[in-house]
Amino acid sequence: MEASRPPSSDVAHYLGAVRRHWWIALAATAAGLGVGATVTHSLPRIYESSSSVLVQAVDQDTNAQGGRTKGSVNLDTEAQLVGSGAVAAKAAALLRTDVAPAELAHSVSVQVPANTTVLVITFQADSPLKAQAGSHAFAEAYLRNREETARAALDKQIASLNLKVKQLTTALTGINAKLAQARRGSSIESNLLSLRSNSQNQLNSLTGRLNEFTTTTVGAGAIISDARLPDTPSSPNTLLDIATGGMIGLLIGLALAYLRERFDRRLVTAVDVRDRGRVPVLATLDERTTPHFDDVLQPYGPGGRVFNRLRNEVLASLDPADRVIVVTGTSRGSASTLVAANLAAALARTGSDVVLIGAHLPDSVVDAAPLARMLGVAAVPGLSELLAGRAGLNRVLQRTPRIPSLRVIATGGSATAAGLMQSQRLRDTLDALRAQGGYVVIEAPSTSSSADAQSLASFADAAILAVELRRTGRPALVDATEQLQRVGTRLLGAVVLPRLAARRAPALPEPAVALPPSGVEPLIDEATQQLSSLPERGEPVSAAVRQRPAENDSSETTKAIDTSGPIVVDGDEK
Q1: CB 192 within 8 A of CB 182
Q2: What is the pTM (predicted TM-score) of this model?
């Protein structure tokens, strides 16, 4: 069962996704800032002005039981009255506007500061003057409405008292008339006197209350802080809107970066090879340590130390009887060539006898014979001539000048070996090399471009994948591992390289064989036979095979080998 990754690894993975796709997050953030600025610019300007009203209690005020505000006045109720239709109608009259009172009421809001008897009346409008006037009008209309309501209640009480006084006065008049007719000392007189005394007392009490109500001054409240002219609009808030747009854009950008990382099939880091491809990483090269096309890394340089560690890990992973290692790539290019050549050089520096077999046919004329350039050996004869039977093993084996323990079998001068990678002759060659007791490193083509990699892996004891970042996709890596598993070859791991730049065409002739156009294989075979007839101990031979222009008449068509350069054999020019 696969062990779960620690949380720090997940965080590093997410941060790596953001770092690799930072431009998405940056573009989304910039877009969010732009949208925020556009929205802010397009929204209408709204101004607010507030008035503070001190609410005073009147006789008819009674706070509801359990009300949120304390005291005789329920300020929550008064806050609702500010936006009522009666107050809005009075405010519209004060403003002398044609706007409907209900519409004006939507623009007003009321707040009740804690532990106070104050209402803060705020009015919103599209201009500072309208906001100031609206807030003052609603505050004044509320106070007038409250005062009128209190005065109406007081007048009603006064009218009620006047009616009672009138009734008692009439009753007293009747009682006094009956007393004038009653006999002195009688019980009737005594009752009438008691009744007149009670009525007189009630009349005096009512008269006193009536006088109190008549002289009462109604004080509903006062404006303690009048509305001011606002300097800046309260909405939209430019900084808040732009910051909100930028934050939303950043979050969207991070989400897009993660989605791109999640659904991107390319492998961009060594962690992707290990986690997404489920392949152990043996070595990782960066731009500073990546080998060049035309040379092998120095053993004590940064790249050489990487391959020295790779050599140690490979030797530790091999069984005592394992001798053949195949190096294949997951994408077209020279990744497998670079890894195979430098791994073979690192193995040979230990004193072991190492044979490097170039079985990777060039992808183009520019990439022809890369092993010959890197190791300083002749491009022909090579594996093609060996498998075709035109040269023997001793003939194609070439010892490198700088690393005596390393011998190379170059790819050869033609592509005729493409169908011979499963031949018995190749199997016999590998058995002969095994018998010599050294290590054999096979530079195989990529698994995505040819089935030869799988064929060569079936002859090998172990395999190494050369993974070129930003060029290799996860499906190609998974397919490569599955191909090796099907033939039973043990996969040691992967060597991760950055994306290699395309090689430019050389300005000067190099020891390489230029691949001809299709249809001229007989000419290639003839040139190869002429080269194979040279002495075995000759120095590197440089020859280029070219097709001369042909006329329309087939009888005059000529094909020849261009030997403009001298051929050196045992130090003599031919």
Answers
A1: yes
A2: 0.52
